[in-house]
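TASK: fixed-backbone design
INPUT:
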């Protein structure tokens, strides 16, 4: 379809609006320009140009050209109205005036859109032609105007229909959607009209979101209230509404008239002439007010206010300079500016504000102070990028190191506060049932005073929050200019290599796994995966980040997985797909290219097929898990045949991950689909089914070892976000009570911590191994317990990531003498009382609290011996039988056996896993030098058979067969 032109330039496109003096309006882009030839009639012309979507009649041609419908002269130019026709809206028996206006607006809009499309398809010149953009802009402007009119008309129609319903309610988003749907129905006959109506209704809803939020903020009593309202409501809005609000005139007006004066009024006038307070006092006052105002504010809101504050400050300084005053911000102003920059970085609004700050006359010698108080060093890094030189980066590093020092102090406080109970759990907890341990802890905390648990929780939360701040500061430091990267890398490695700072960061990621979804968390994950920054310490942190990602973005969907619910299935599949994140794959040690990566992706897809389906019983679930495990084994067999290292074995990170995630969804699907998740107690059948499912995953762990928790899954706990008690709309309806589903999830979600403990120990990183392992012990004890663990400790739980982790932190680097003294400090009455909860009698408990020469507890080796003899100490009956055997020992014989175990523990360096499995009953022999030559003596026990021989020789009854 051609476009009519004059001298080669489309006529109407030069004049989107018809000239006032023209009798015949110029052609639209949809219309054709026809020059009459001999023999043409209006009917023949109409027939030539008519199409099904744009039918043309002779009468329409005559009317369009304002001529009679008769003979026409050759050579005459005619406009053929080939206007696209749209289906009329559905008829309404009682149309309102607003409907008629919407229909007319719709007609104009569709015509404007059709004209724009016709122009785009029919323009024959190059798009870089100087006439192209102005002409197209004209048609685009007409379309935009028509769309805005359509939106106004439909908004008026929705409101009129709502008012006519007389329901007495408020026109909210739900009502707009409801009445808007009725408007859309009228245009069902025409796809373009329907799409335009849907877009208009959506636009009405977006604008309503913006207007309602601004209205609520404007109604707040003061500036702080307005900021709080905006911060609370902005994240609830649709993404489109969020963007529009921040760029709206209404928001600018709110900042200018209501919020801004709270921190800019002090900059008005000529306060630099006030000799009483000094010229720098007013800028400092303004920044301090701004800092307080945006504390805790939504980052984009805070960034916009910071930008407003910087503009006001620059205006103030400019006016002062014109008046002959050169003002610097001073210590207080600089400190506040650093804190403001630390809060607003990472958003477009905040980054603009920070760039503006780099030119302010701050006190560079004091810039590190704000960072040492916990601010991100965003301003220092921005100054280094803007002005170069090492000074700003040096200040940033100094501040972060000072802050890390304050974190270490709080870790020490937490370690000291929880040291004794941590030691008791680590050394005696393994001899107890979960209920016994629960009662032991309850009695201990009760005896420690009413504030003990509260203090523990407060210290833990403080350390976790500081660890999160350290992560933020590390993220900021990593953005230093290229010529300063070596310096910042070394500083970050030092912080991550410090055991106490590392503990705080680890605890932060356990308590706040959603940190991984923050801007800083995503950047950190990408940096660790792709840049190889921070060396060996970066690899360790990368594993922490990977674990947080798995917990927050993948396993969170497992907790409520219900195979009977299609929406739940879709959510589970989407969560499993997140395992394909290239950054996660890199952190697991795989390349994102090549055969191993492709195999991993296929196995993730296969994992989705292993999800329990509606109606699946234990056998079907087990079969699916075994199929997936065998698929991984087959891939590894192929790798081995190709002389490549296996990747998906159960002891490799990728293999562990896929097995654990599959197991998580399998067990939770089993519990939820079978309606087993509502009662807080487990039946024996439940337990047996779960153990069978665990075994099918081929993780190589006992069910109780797999029950390692990421922390207590209870109200206000480390990972309470994964479910604590029963909730309705996110509010607990029975705080402190676990459903079976909650506790099963506690079993599963921290298999990752268990494996990390093993891996960290193998690499000699016993600090992290201790942290992870305690999470495992704590999670096991809590999950298997039939009571609420958190209630024994007060408002929140602490055991998961605290416990042994803090003992290790507190004793890391101590000499052997110091470590022995630390252990021997727990040979006291409190230790014996704690041990009595395992049903050891008082005399036995008193004997067992005596430590070895190097400070190791004999209880751990006794328990290991029993397990090697076939006892399943996670089962109450077996545990009672083991305890009864120990209680039956005469005290003198138990003390002799304890001495033998002490020697073995010192030889094992406390690692009871070194006890050999050889069951040959024989006393080990050793030789010592004497004056008469070498003399044979009894050696140190090292195997199960050795202990059997000692028990026999001491006249102690053999441990009964379980």
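OUTPUT:
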């Amino acid at each position: 379809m051609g476009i009519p032109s004059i001298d080669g330039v489309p006529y109407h496109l030069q004049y989107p609006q018809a000239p006032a003096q023209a009798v015949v309006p110029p052609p639209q882009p949809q219309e054709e320009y026809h020059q009459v030839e001999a023999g043409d009639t209006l009917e023949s012309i109409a027939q030539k140009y008519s199409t099904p979507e744009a039918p043309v009649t002779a009468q329409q041609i005559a009317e369009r050209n304002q001529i009679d419908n008769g003979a026409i002269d050759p050579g005459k130019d005619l406009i053929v109205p080939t206007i696209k026709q749209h289906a009329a809206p559905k008829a309404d028996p009682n149309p309102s005036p607003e409907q008629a206006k919407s229909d007319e607006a719709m007609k104009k809009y569709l015509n404007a859109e059709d004209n724009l499309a016709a122009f785009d398809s029919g323009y024959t010149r190059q798009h870089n032609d100087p006439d192209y953009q102005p002409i197209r802009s004209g048609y685009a402007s007409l379309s935009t105007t028509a769309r805005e009119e359509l939106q106004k008309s439909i908004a008026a129609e929705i409101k009129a229909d709502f008012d006519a319903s007389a329901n007495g309610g408020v026109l909210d988003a739900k009502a707009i959607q409801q009445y808007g749907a009725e408007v859309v129905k009228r245009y069902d006959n025409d796809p373009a009209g329907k799409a335009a109506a849907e877009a208009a209704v959506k636009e009405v809803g977006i604008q309503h979101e913006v207007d309602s939020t601004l209205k609520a903020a404007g109604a707040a009593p003061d500036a702080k209230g307005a900021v709080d309202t905006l911060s609370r409501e902005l994240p609830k809005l649709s993404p489109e509404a969020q963007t529009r609000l921040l760029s709206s005139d209404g928001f600018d007006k709110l900042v200018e008239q209501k919020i801004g004066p709270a921190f800019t009024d002090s900059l008005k006038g000529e306060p630099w002439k006030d000799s009483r307070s000094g010229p720098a006092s007013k800028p400092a006052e303004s920044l301090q007010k701004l800092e307080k105002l945006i504390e805790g504010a939504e980052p984009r809101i805070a960034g916009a206010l910071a930008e407003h504050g910087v503009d006001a400050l620059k205006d103030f300084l400019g006016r002062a300079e014109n008046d002959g005053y050169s003002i610097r911000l001073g210590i207080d102003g600089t400190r506040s500016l650093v804190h403001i920059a630390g809060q607003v970085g990472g958003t477009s609004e905040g980054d603009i504000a920070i760039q503006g700050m780099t030119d302010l006359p701050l006190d560079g010698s004091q810039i590190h102070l704000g960072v040492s108080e916990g601010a991100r060093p965003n301003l220092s890094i921005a100054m280094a990028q803007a002005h170069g030189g090492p000074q700003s980066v040096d200040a940033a590093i100094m501040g972060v190191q000072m802050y890390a020092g304050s974190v270490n102090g709080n870790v020490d406080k937490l370690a000291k506060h929880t040291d004794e109970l941590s030691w008791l759990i680590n050394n005696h907890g393994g001899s107890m049932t979960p209920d016994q341990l629960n009662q032991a802890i309850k009695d201990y905390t009760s005896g420690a005073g009413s504030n003990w648990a509260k203090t523990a929780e407060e210290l833990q939360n403080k350390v976790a929050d500081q660890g999160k701040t350290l992560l933020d500061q590390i993220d900021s430091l990593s953005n230093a200019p290229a010529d300063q990267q070596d310096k910042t890398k070394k500083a970050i490695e030092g912080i991550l290599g410090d055991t106490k700072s590392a503990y705080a960061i680890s605890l932060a990621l356990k308590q706040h796994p959603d940190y991984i979804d923050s801007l800083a968390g995503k950047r950190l994950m990408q940096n660790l995966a792709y840049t190889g920054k921070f060396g060996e310490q970066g690899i360790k942190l990368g594993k922490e980040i990977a674990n947080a990602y798995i917990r927050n973005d993948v396993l969170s969907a497992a907790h409520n997985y219900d195979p009977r619910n299609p929406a739940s299935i879709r959510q589970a599949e989407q969560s499993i797909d997140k395992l394909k994140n290239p950054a996660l794959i890199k952190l697991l040690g795989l390349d994102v290219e090549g055969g191993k990566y492709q195999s991993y992706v296929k196995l993730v897809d296969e994992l989705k097929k292993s999800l329990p389906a509606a109606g699946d019983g234990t056998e079907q679930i087990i079969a699916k898990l075994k199929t997936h495990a065998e698929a991984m084994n087959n891939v590894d067999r192929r790798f081995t045949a190709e002389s490549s290292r296996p990747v998906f074995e159960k002891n490799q990170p990728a293999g562990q991950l896929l097995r654990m995630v599959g197991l998580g969804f399998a067990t939770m699907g089993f519990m939820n689909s079978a309606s087993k998740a509502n009662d807080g107690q487990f039946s024996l059948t439940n337990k047996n089914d779960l153990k069978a499912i665990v075994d099918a995953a081929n993780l190589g762990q006992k069910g109780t070892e797999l029950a390692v928790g990421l922390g207590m899954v209870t109200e206000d706990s480390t990972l309470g976000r994964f479910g604590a008690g029963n909730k309705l709309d996110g509010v607990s309806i029975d705080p402190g009570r676990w459903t079976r589903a909650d506790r099963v999830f506690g079993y599963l979600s921290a298999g990752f911590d268990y494996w990390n403990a093993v891996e960290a120990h193998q690499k000699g990183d016993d600090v992290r191994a201790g942290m992870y392992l305690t999470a495992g012990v704590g999670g096991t004890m809590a999950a298997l317990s039939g009571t609420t663990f958190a209630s024994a400790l007060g408002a929140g739980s602490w055991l998961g990531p605290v416990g042994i982790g803090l003992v290790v932190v507190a004793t890391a680097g101590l000499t052997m003498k110091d470590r022995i003294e630390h252990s021997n400090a727990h040979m006291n009455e409190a230790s014996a009382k704690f041990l009595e909860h395992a049903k050891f009698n008082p005399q036995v408990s008193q004997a067992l609290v005596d430590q070895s020469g190097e400070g190791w507890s004999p209880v751990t080796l006794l328990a290991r011996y029993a397990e090697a003899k076939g006892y399943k100490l996670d089962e109450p009956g077996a545990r009672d039988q083991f305890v009864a055997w120990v209680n039956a020992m005469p005290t003198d014989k138990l003390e002799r056996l304890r001495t033998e175990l002490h020697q073995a523990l010192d030889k094992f360096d406390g690692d009871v896993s070194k006890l050999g499995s050889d069951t040959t009953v024989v006393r080990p022999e050793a030789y010592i030098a004497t004056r008469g030559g070498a003399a044979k003596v009894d050696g140190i026990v090292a195997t199960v058979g050795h202990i059997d021989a000692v028990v026999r020789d001491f006249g102690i009854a053999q441990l009964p067969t379980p």
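COMMENT: Residues 1-22, 675-684, 700-762, 764-817 have pLDDT under 50 and may be disordered.
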